[in-house]
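User: quick one
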Amino acid sequence: MPAEVATALARKDVVGISQLDVGEIQLILDTAEELLEVAKRPIKKVPTLRGSTVVNLFMEPSTRTRFSFEVAEKRLSADTLNFSASSSSVSKGETLFDTARNLMAMAPDYIVIRHPHSGAPHRLAQEVSASIINAGDGINEHPTQALLDAFTMRQHFGSLDGLKVVIAGDIRHSRVARSNAFLLDKMGAEVRFVAPASLLPLDAEDLGVSTHVRLEPALEGADVVMMLRIQLERQKRINFPSMREYFDFFALTPERLMLATDSAVVMHPGPMNRGVEIDSLVADGTQSLILEQVTNGVAIRMAILYLLAGGRSEAASDS
Amino acid sequence: MKRLLIRNGRVVDPSQGLDQGMDLLLENGVVAAIGERLDPPARTKMFDAAGLVVAPGFIDLHTHLREPGFEHKETIESGCRAAVAGGFTALCCMPDTDPVNDDPAVTAFIVKRAEQIGLAKVYPVGAASVGLKGEEMAEIGEMVRAGAVAISDDCKSVSNAQLVRRVLEYARSFDVPLAAHEEDLDLSAGGSMHEGGVSARIGLRGIPTSAEEVMVARDVLLAELTRGRLHLCHLSTSASLDLVRTAKQRGLAVTCEVAAHQFVLTDEDVAGSNYDPNWKVNPPLRSAVEVEAILQAIYDGTVDAIVSDHEPHHADEKEFDFSDAPFGIVGLETAVPLALDRLVHGRVIGLMQLVRLMSTRPAEIFNIPGGTLREGSPADVTVLDLRALRTVDPASFKSRAQNTPFADMRLKGWPAATIVGGEIVWKA
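Assistant: Done. Structure below.
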């Protein structure tokens, strides 16, 4: 990278898109662009984080996000430790801070945390000296997902400015929707939330998005259609009646996708419910960027670790 | 080509602000022309409406048809016969059948059966919750697609406020109102008539006005929270109507209906009936003070619709004592004459306002075709004879049921003919 380009985030943690400014988001996306080629090398490894320790603290089940972080950490040559809810002492009644203090006693440099409760990473970031990276907290934020989504859109369209992005699904419980809305709004894209009102946050318009209770009108002129996972088992059938009805009225089908622009792309943070929120013909179709999202996820997480490492070493040399 | 010319009638159509002598030409199921002295094309059937009122077809927002499941009380066919004989061209039937209309297959069955019968138009109301149990949301979208015009857990008030909230929100996707039967089941438990001085006197357990009012208050607040469409069924109390007034002032999508018997009878009539279960209805016949408030709300426009709340029961079921007998009275064949007699001849409102309450507004509230005689609209017409003086005769009811407290009551103003899709389906 050229010397004048920043190689560090001037912050200790990445807990949410809310806290990042446009310049920081650009920096992360640009850095990920550079790091994407690491995956194409015969030996997919750079020494950036050699000697650093990353703790992956997953208090909620996750497969792809945890794997994505682990791959990113390993490609940067970090030592990694994995804690998951089932194997940790959380189930034995230990508080978040006690867990954190115990982990800090092992002197990690980074803690990647996924937590079922909103705000846990933010509280932890205040408490410990390690860099905290939010891998999803409750219904609040999932910043690395939003960054990889933005990266994927930018990769495809060249710019985020003016893009019309539909985000459809269980918005009310979706940290992905919220982080995406924050990020896309900052970057000049237009976000349209689509869900029956029972799955929308109250006053969602205050997030700078438009809201729609039917998919069809929102698809008009859309460049990106992002479908979110619907989980009936978590709803107790009080927010919407059935998978069948959801598919009939709110799923992305080839016919509905025709309402978007011809060059529109389809995204999904996964894991998909085929035949519920998305028709397989769309998920596996030529307009789908769903697997690109996964590839890009590794580059984004490498970029964040890399840029936080830069910040940490600058802070170290300052003192 | 089927043509019918309704000549020399007094056309009253609030949707066009019309109240004057006019002719109406119906052709191929729609209003083809409206004007003074129309020249009919050849082979046009004539209907002389001299001395009669010609109004857009009356729509009953609240009927229980009982089929499927309770055909001993009423069938779709007998209910439709009763409807047209009562001056209604369309009705909306509540989902408390067996199986419950909580499934698009049931909705489609009702629609298809009514089409086969070809009398009144029938618009099903789908259940809000599965099995009317108040626990899980029913397939509202699928039922709307099959023909439902509103959703309701009528007869079963929804205790779960969270479910009401989510239904109000979810139904916005399909632009249908939640028609709410408002009753706090703990407050009403065990009661069989209005709770007050009369119930104390005659020794029946009462249902307080607050059983309705607390739920109206809750749901109006939820309508405000959710921006959902709320239609309040058969309101019966002064405070409920005040809550509607306030909701309308706040610009909420809240509408309400009143059942015809509610503004005619009081709890004193229950006392006078000698514990006759034909006077037992839910919500109960209220005190004179509440009835006065209902008339005021009809006069000032707080009430959007007058309905029959037709609840047919088999004669055997009304042979129980007052407390054990089921709630409900038949209304399809008495609602219009009661309204004409008490509201129009009783000088509470004018004829224009009555037509608005029984046709224009019902069509708007449930988004049903009709409610107007504009050219191109459905050829559904209610013809009224304001001067007809008749006695209510349950034996002549087209309904299978005769559970009415109005037997032998003499009323002025009756339907004279009912025209659906350009065909005269009933004539006095």
